[in-house]
Structures are given as C-alpha cells and as structure tokens.
Write a structure and sequence with these properties.
Order of helices and strands: HEEHH
Largest sheet: 2 strands, antiparallel
Mean pLDDT: 87
Number of domains: 1
Shape: elongated
Structural class: mainly alpha
Strand content: 5-15%
Distance between the termini: 24 Å
Number of strands: 2
Amino acid sequence: MADWVKQILTRKVRRREVVEPNEKLVYAVKFSLAMTGCLSLLEVAHMAFLNSWNAEIFVAISSLITFVSGIIIGQKAS
C-alpha cells in the first residue's frame, strides 16, 4: 500500500515535471483508507450479528470515501 497511494497522488505538469505529494497527505489518505476498511468490517459484523442496519456507521464510511476521493481529485486538478 506504500507506493500506489503516492503514485495516485503524484501529478505531472507539462509532461516533464513530476510533483510529488506531501508525506502528510499520503499518510492521511492511507489512514482514511484503513479506517474505511475497518468501518466496513464493523458494518458487516453489525448486520451479521444484530440483523440491522446502522446508519451512523454508513455515514462514517461515506464521509471517509468522500474525503479520499476529494483529496485525489483536488490533487490531480491543481
């Protein structure tokens, strides 16, 4: 997971210049992706054992996915 996150966040300017992302940004995206996976497992366990849907967990998953996709789109656009 180390190289592909940095590769996604790296942008090219004028085909020759490569702008590397900040390490803090890479760590934030890695943490958000890990938390999204953990929350997804928590939601699956909640549905399996309690047979009900938890809206709060789903909102947390959705907000983390929005956070990560916003960072990736913003990094590529600027």
